[in-house]
Amino acid sequence: MAITRILMVCLGNICRSPLAHGILESKLPDDLFYVDSAGTSNYHIGQQPDRRSIAVARLHGIDISHQAGRQFSKNDFDAFDIIYAMDQDNYNDIVRLARTEDDIAKVRKILDADTNISSKNVPDPYYGDMSDFEHVFALLDTVCQEIADQLNS
Q1: Whole-angstrom distance, CA of residue 153 vs CA of residue 135
Q2: 63 is an active site residue
Q3: Alpha-carbon gap, residue 148 to 153, rounded angstroms
Q4: 59 to 36, 46, 56, 64: CA distances (angstroms)
Q5: Regarding the domain with residue range 4-152, which homologous superfamily does it belong to in the CATH classification?
Q6: What are the beta bridge partners of residue 91?
Q7: In this predicted structure, what is the pLDDT of residue 1?
Q8: What is the mean pLDDT, run by run of 10 residues, along the chain of 153 residues?
Q9: pLDDT given at position 54
Q10: The one catalytic residue among 15, 16, 76, 144
Q11: Domain ranges of the chain
């Protein structure tokens, strides 16, 4: 059975996408799914996630400290089956790099997976405090459970 490859993408790959990566990875069997993350910018290549993302994930029993920032590239369209953007701006940036309609079909906004959430953009907690990171964790935890339930069914 082929492994389904899933990529989480935000701007810098240090706050939202590492959290989404760690959360979804914790909810899926690793023999059937591979989860990774990237940023549309090159600001934090090779860096660990933001210390606050690491801390909030750890509070919920998830270790994301081993992750390292990297930039999204056109090759990711070949390497991944599903690409989740954290917000509309990152969705637009990813789609701008698409080479084909098949590439575009792989890209989704992550909060679209949960019909109970009205805002479809995961807020960027970078300039906020720990409560902003907790809020983002809660949003992503809810939607990642929805995604995991869909993928496992």
Answers
A1: 28
A2: no
A3: 8
A4: 21, 24, 5, 11
A5: Response regulator (3.40.50.2300)
A6: none
A7: 66
A8: 94 97 97 98 96 98 98 98 98 98 98 90 97 98 97 89
A9: 98
A10: 16
A11: 4-152
